[in-house]
Amino acid sequence: MSQYTKYRRSNKLYNILIFLILLTCIAVTVVLLWSDTIAEGAAPSEDPPATRDDAISSGAIPSGDGSSGSGTSDQSDGQQLDLSSYPQALQELYEKNPDARQFVLDYFEKRSLDPEIDLSGEIKSGAVPLLMQWDERWGYTTYSGNLMGLSGCGPTCLSMAAIYLLQDPTLDPRTIADFATENGYATDGYGTSWTLFSEGAPKLGISCDELPLNKGDIDNALESGCLVACVMGPGDFTDAGHYILLTGIQDGEYVVNDSNSYKNSERTWSYDELEGQIRNIWALCKAG
């Protein structure tokens, strides 16, 4: 074989090798580009949870009773509601107490209003009235350095008792709150002193006798036509302190008027459930 023939054959093999290398590079490039395109088109977008409950269940935010500080809460239709402009205490009330959510939402619109209070219908019913401290007729009133809707359980509790025992609809929660403030039974930042009941109730014409923590004494007071006011510690009714009113006995359990919860007021409570949470207790009766 001549030297020229060997040269041509070697050159041809070299060209084929170069062509194969180029073809391989092109094929790899096409595959990589195609893979990236497929990956980008297949990746689903991650929509945020529709509600706070969804966010909790998915782990997006931690669970808990209080506000996370973001000022965002869920509405019944699942849409996000921005509460960041509301006072922090109202944001927390919205989170913890569904019954009070409308009170929170109406804050800016109604906080400066002075609505008429007419509770004469409560007298006609013949029952102990169930009143909420965050009722919009008085809940935006300032009491003990806060909104009455947040700190007004004491005046509301005594108001329910006074309206029923004295048959006087003018002794509404706002009136009792003013009475407590004027007589030194309310302290800024600390709510209502126990003396609103032990000293203040008699000034209104209601006898107030402190009871021992004993089921028999509570039952006797209720069966004699009196009401029983309780200061509750942390538990089913509060994280700190709260006043409730026992209004009767039903099937061996107590009927409770809780000024912060319709839910707690719609069921009866056994003595065993309440005993460990009670901090003080009084029998309230019409004087004379």
Task: Give an overview of the whole structure.
With 288 residues, the protein is an alpha+beta fold. The protein has 13 helices and 12 strands. The strands form 4 sheets. The chain has a 6-stranded antiparallel sheet, with helices on both faces. Strands 1-2 form a two-stranded antiparallel sheet. A hairpin with a 2-residue loop joins strand 9 and strand 10.
Shape: elongated
**Tally of separate domains:** 2
Strand content: 15-25%
CATH fold descriptor of the largest domain = Cathepsin B, Chain A
Number of helices: 13
Provide the low-confidence segments as ranges: 2-7, 30-70
Which sheet architecture does the biggest sheet show? 6 strands, antiparallel
Instruction: Give the helix level as a range of percent.
Output: 40-55%
Widest β-sheet, arrangement of strands: 7-12-8-9-10-11
Tell me the name of the CATH class of the largest domain.
Alpha Beta
What class, by secondary structure content? Answer: alpha+beta
Order of helices and strands: HHEEHHHHEEHHHEEHEHEEEHEHE
CATH architecture heading of the largest domain = Alpha-Beta Complex
Distance between the termini: 140 Å
What is Rg? 35 Å
Overall mean pLDDT score? 83
Total E-strand runs: 12
CATH superfamily of the largest domain: Cysteine proteinases
What keyword list fits this structure?
single chain; 288 residues; alpha+beta; Cathepsin B, Chain A; 2 domains; six-stranded antiparallel sheet; two-stranded antiparallel ribbon; 13 helices; disordered N terminus
